[in-house]
């Protein structure tokens, strides 16, 4: 017998080698599905991160829409856009119409135009218009 063990455990067809080969095969058989699961989990994490980014973008847009359609509060001021004026009070369009402004709801006026800009463009008294609009919110 050679030193350090028998020829059965160290030989070409030894027990150690056969056990090692079986263990290797068993690991390879089980590692395939594990590797696939790890790959799938990696893909899911990336998709989740992408969806989180997209969700934040959609939420930001919705916040912008909510701000755009929510009724402004506080007094009417010259720096308000025509859109804000019309949303501030349901009767604001009627007041503007009574003062000689065209019907802003069907007009091609820029809704980002301010009251100051509209007063300059249409030649109406801004102070009087603001006073009339303020009566709506008292």
Describe the fold and architecture.
There is one protein chain. Helix content is 67%, strand content 0%. With 138 residues, it is mainly α. The radius of gyration is 38 Å and the shape is rod-shaped. The N and C termini lie far apart (110 Å). The chain has two domains: 7-69; 82-137, no CATH class. The longest helix is centred in the first third of the chain and has 55 residues, at 15-69. The protein has six helices and no strands.
Notable features of this structure?
138 residues; mainly alpha; 2 domains; 6 helices; rod-shaped
Number of strands: 0
Helix content: 55-70%
Rg (CA only)? 38 Å
Distance between the termini: 110 Å
Residue fraction in strands? under 5%
How do the strands and helices of this protein lay out in sequence?
Elements: H1 7-10, H2 15-69, H3 82-88, H4 92-98, H5 115-122, H6 126-137
Task: Describe what is shown at a glance.
The chain is mainly α and 138 residues long.
């Amino acid at each position: 017998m050679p030193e350090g063990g028998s020829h059965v455990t160290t030989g070409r067809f030894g027990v150690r080698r056969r056990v090692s080969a079986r263990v290797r095969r068993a690991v390879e058989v089980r590692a395939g599905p594990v590797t696939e699961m790890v790959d799938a989990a990696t893909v899911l994490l990336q998709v989740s991160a992408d969806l989180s980014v997209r969700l934040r973008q959609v939420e930001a847009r919705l916040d912008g829409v909510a701000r755009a359609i929510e009724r402004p509060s506080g007094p009417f001021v010259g720096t308000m856009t025509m859109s804000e004026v019309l949303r501030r009070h349901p009767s604001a369009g009627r007041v503007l119409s009574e003062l000689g402004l065209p019907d802003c709801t069907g007009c091609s006026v820029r809704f980002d135009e301010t009251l100051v800009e509209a007063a300059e463009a249409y030649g109406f008294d801004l102070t009087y218009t603001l006073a009339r609009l303020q009566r709506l919110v008292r």
